[in-house]
User: What shape does this take?
Amino acid sequence: MAQNTTVPTAGHDEHHHENTVVFGFWVYLMTDCIIFGSLFATFAVLRNQFNGGPTPHELFEFGGLGLETALLLLSSITYGFGMIAAHKTQISQVIMWLGVTFLLGLGFVGLEVREFAHMIADGAGPDRSAFLSAFFTLVSTHGLHVTCGLIWIVTLMVQLMGTTEIPERMMNKLTCLSLFWHFLDIVWICVFTYVYLASMI
Amino acid sequence: MSNPNTSSSGESHGSVSSYLIGFVLAVILTVLSFGVVMSHSLAPTGTLAVLSVLALVQVLVHLHYFLHMGSGSEARWNNIAFVFTVAFVSILIVGTVFIMANTSINMMSR
Assistant: This one.
């Protein structure tokens, strides 16, 4: 146990020197925030321009939205457990939690793609009205980010397989993905509140 | 959890209990958001106001418990970048909505 405690201490000291990587990624996330801000502003302006097409009350349903929200929220906490395991250098645990996070994220993307497919099949595609153009642009930009996050999770899982320790470089990658994944969940809070629920009042 | 680093590392990357607290708070806030819309118990303006407050609180919960934003000296530049972004995005969204609402009133397009 005495030997065990020295390892995280050493890792933690390095963490202080090398967090420019994580800070750089944080700055990227802030720019991403501005992209989403622009898309939210666009949606806010166009949300009532239906052009005689379907309205949110006909398109959105609580069940699917609740399930998507639950999956993304659960994936946030499972990634958090993965990070805790990473700080304890329990690599098999990290891979397991990353796997669970991947499946939850995949479920989210699957539900979203199915929702989009149903809408387009019903003639409510992005070309129907300004409201739907803004809706598809905003929500699919978020979905695309989640898909990139899924690819990233698989990449890190493969890189972690067969290793016995987590070097600082790997820890930085895991920390950046952690920030990315939790950031996407925050964007989703704004999406389900302002895009879905506020349109269903 | 008897690790001597818990006090310093606990702030920057959290513990099982802090993640669970954040998760439970997020679930409660999400359920309240859905509940207030599904129950139709408030007027539309009131519902929108309650939704906004719930979303803001939930964003703060995520920032604190999941992204571990804090006030430590190493977090200073992260916080400065964050405050700048929040100000920028607020001006962007409020300004856009204000100008476009004004335009549509003057053009009588709604």
Q: What stands out?
A: Chain A touches chain B through 47 residues (CB under 8 Å). Confidence is low (pLDDT under 50) at residues 1-15 of chain A.
